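User: Second chain of the day. Same drill as before.
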Amino acid sequence: MFLTGYVYDIVGVRYTLCLATFFAGFGLMFYPLGAPHLWILVTGVCLFRLGADLIGANTLIIDYVEKKSRAKALSFSFMGVCAGVVLSNLVLVHFTRDLDPLITWSIMSGMMIAFSITMFLTLSEPKNRVKREDAEKPVLKKIWELTINILKAVKKNPNLLIGWIMNVLVSGPILILEMYYYNWLKSFQPKDGSGPFPDSDTFMNYYELQSTLGSVFALVLLFFAGSVIDKINFRIILPVTLLMRAGIFYMVSIITNPV
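Assistant: Same format as last time:
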């Protein structure tokens, strides 16, 4: 993720996004084709994660949206993610559940590759993103100059470093929380079939349902959040959001074992 910013500044937004989406879609095809060869599956996962990380770190909002409206644009972006989860669970997963795995993954792969081609034909490069004189410089020189610019920006505005540290401290526990919750929920499916989830299909149906409901709730919340955040000082927003996450961690800490 750290190097994705370099890629956008050196290659440009249009080519980076299109290639990232293409490789992510192409990597999905390795999933059904990889079995039983583990190295093929690992290759597909690496290609997909590389593309997904580049897509997730895109600079479209910074390049195309005015500073006063960036919270609205960011909330709209997250609404797209939530809508994607809802549509995937209600439509894509539901209608492809009983199909051959090769066909199922081909549909998802084809959708991403088609979207990458569409972006290449419609997306325009932001002005002054990649200057002509910079395009002729060696790659190592570009990386050095970008690193110097980053250090100068952090020195001028230490909030950038503070924000990066906060992101690390908050994102790490969230990932651990998600894995813990999944494993905790999975433990309600004992091998003897006596639990509330007698088989894997029942468990996955419930997991998809709670994922869909959570995304719908986030979708509604984000609709109002963008306008509010643009008008409130970040010194108020950050403590409130951190307290909300602390509350989530506390709720998890009091969850008892299913046994």
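The mean pLDDT is 78.

User: Great, on to the next one.
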